[in-house]
Design goal:
By secondary structure, this protein is mainly α. The chain folds into two domains: 7-133; 149-371, no CATH class. The protein has helices at residues 7-29, 33-56, 69-81, 84-92, 94-108, 119-128, 135-145, 149-177, 181-227, 229-242, 247-258, 261-273, 284-300, 311-337, 341-371.
Length: 372
């Protein structure tokens, strides 16, 4: 009997293979042996999921696919910027992986398993049942879990996308209203500077205001820690108990953490307030400059042809360069979504060109109206 499998099944298998590959990378690079063991177990779970998919689809296990180009690219990114980027991206794909396993369970009419849930739940359960995991290790893992590695990379991609789409639309609108090279170039550069400055100022205000708010909350938490350490220890133990950790182990973990007031403060603000003190060390000016340059990189692309050309030739060149940039951005987004590179890239191109075409058409109408 032959079993027919579809593209969705193949994609689910590849998703699990990639997850196993990436968690194995995290395990090999992790210095804490207990946290590394968590990642190794995650890798084994995802490999088992891939095996399950292949068995249920009647596929030869010896032909299990290797890691995809996306997974290998994430490995390179991790080598360049740190493996927290990989962990951030993996956590972003929890829902899709869980849905894939759930669909396979329904298809094969098998019972659900605790490993079918999202990655964070799996990781917490592994930690809860590991007697060798100390309070310090758990606190450190919680910090890693809340890492913004994946978010930082996503911000870079989306920042470039904002600059490209907004300035491409602006340039096309001005080009439609006026065939003059200098007018389009002026408008394009003005749009680049205005958008980049607005983005950077907004980022500076956001980071600065968040830092001030969190610093105030952290000061209040330190005051509570100094005046009522017994109460704070009980609160911390209750937090761990609420996560499913046995009461005795939770009390031991809380007591261990409370031996060092500085570490206790860090853990308490993470657990009670959801604040990572290390993230507050980032410079608001650095964030603003990063935002400025990311937006500017995207925004300069549609302007480039107008530095040396004008008229319909420059318009077509601008559209061509922007389309390439949009496709690259769409392809980069697949690092987080896991979608097809061609699907995501072409979708980004179509949306970007549609927005530019609309503004070009409006520019033409306005230009004809003014000149007529």
């Amino acid at each position: 009997m032959y079993v027919i499998f579809d593209m969705t099944s193949l994609k689910n298998i590849q998703t699990e293979v990639d997850a196993s590959f990436l968690y194995d990378l995290l395990a090999k690079s992790e210095q804490d042996p207990h946290v590394a063991d968590v990642f190794r177990q995650m890798s084994e779970i995802e490999h088992e999921h891939a095996t399950l998919f292949m068995k249920k689809n009647g596929m030869d296990l010896s032909k299990m696919p290797g890691p995809s180009f996306r997974a290998k690219t994430l490995k390179k990114i991790g080598q360049l910027f740190g493996n927290d980027y990989i962990l951030g991206v993996l956590l972003d794909t929890e829902k899709s992986i869980s849905n894939s396993i759930g669909a396979a369970r329904k298809l094969t009419k098998t019972e659900t398993s605790i490993s079918d849930t999202a990655h964070v739940t799996i990781l917490k359960n592994i930690l809860n049942h590991s007697k060798t995991v100390s309070g310090t290790s758990l606190a450190r893992f919680e910090k890693r879990h809340r890492s913004v590695g994946g978010n930082a990379l996503r911000a870079a991609v989306l920042g470039g996308n904002d600059g490209l789409v907004s300035n491409f639309s602006l340039v096309m609108g001005i080009a439609g209203a006026s065939s003059g090279q200098s007018e389009v170039l002026l408008a394009g550069m003005a749009g680049l500077l205005a958008g980049a400055l607005s983005m950077s100022l907004g980022e500076w205000i956001s980071v600065k205001s968040s830092q001030e708010l969190y610093e105030n909350q952290m000061a209040l938490e330190m005051e509570e820690l100094e005046h009522n350490p017994e109460g704070e220890q009980k609160e911390l133990a209750l937090i761990y108990i609420s996560k499913g950790i046995p009461e005795e182990q939770a009390n031991q973990m809380a007591a261990e953490i409370m031996r060092d007031k500085s570490k206790a403060h860090d853990v308490l603000i993470k657990e009670e307030l959801g604040i990572n003190a290390e993230e507050l060390q980032g410079s608001a000016m650095e964030a603003a400059l990063t935002s400025f340059f990311l937006f500017a990189i995207g925004a300069i692309i549609p302007v480039i042809p107008f530095f040396f050309s004008g008229g319909i030739q420059a318009v077509l060149l601008s559209a061509g360069l922007s389309a390439i940039g949009l496709f690259i951005i769409g392809a980069a987004i697949t690092l987080f979504t896991g979608k097809s590179v061609w699907f995501s890239g072409m979708r980004q191109v179509l949306f970007g060109l549609a927005a530019a075409a609309i503004t070009y058409g409006i520019g033409r109408l306005i230009g004809v109206s003014v000149l007529g």
